[in-house]
Specification:
Layout (H helix, E strand, L loop, with lengths): L1 H9 L6 H8 L16 E9 L9 E10 L2 E11 L9 H6 L3 H5 L4 H12 L3 E4 L2 H16 L7 E3 H8 L10 H7 L10 H21 L5 H18 L4
Parallel strand pairs: 1-4, 4-5
Antiparallel strand pairs: 1-2, 2-3
Helix pairs in contact: 5-6, 7-9
Amino acid sequence: MKLRRLLLRGRSVGLSPTLTARRAALPTPQPIDSTPVDQARLVVLDLETSGLDLQRDDILSIGAVAIDGGTLHMADQFECTLLRPAHRASQATLLHEIAPSEVHAGCPAEEALLDLMEFAGRCVFAAFHAGFDRRMLSRGLHQDLNYRLQHRFLDVAELAPMLFPEAARYCSTLDDWQQHFHLANSERHNAAADAQTTAEILLILLHRAARQGTATLAELNNRLALWRRLNLVRSGGF
């Protein structure tokens, strides 16, 4: 175990001067503050991984799409498969339909992750079940770039039932919400396609939040915090 930690730390030591300079130039993240939601850059992220183990599995594919100024820009997208030389096909990768040949021909992890963070820029990330994506991204950035993730995340899997409680009784998965909002996704479990679908759902959610008077990132975050506490009380967590 100790040897594994040493090896993982060593993965970021060999960054070239060019990559080191690019890492140093990354902007600070968007804080959760009085910035109007419709003026913030929100980057919707989806990661396909070799499995669900946060300590052992790796990011294989990244899909991201930006909502900027309240608009989903079709040209403002990011997609990348990461190079994993030791990767072998598994049940998870068969589900994602990521061929070993794609992974073996992918972009070096440190370059792919740096490209992502440059694309993201000064943003708030969003994802469906964001805790998993946040932890996997944080671990990958630490191991491959020696970079500490400080970006905040919005969880679309929490926003959806908070803003559409009438649908929460029968919607829990991304597929459920996609069907509820009559959205098409012909490439489910593809990082770029899932990021696109999640972004379309997020736009619907933010439109309802705005109609209810939630205008800023801080107001949205405070509503989420209150919603979590109320759920905890209802479930007997206190």
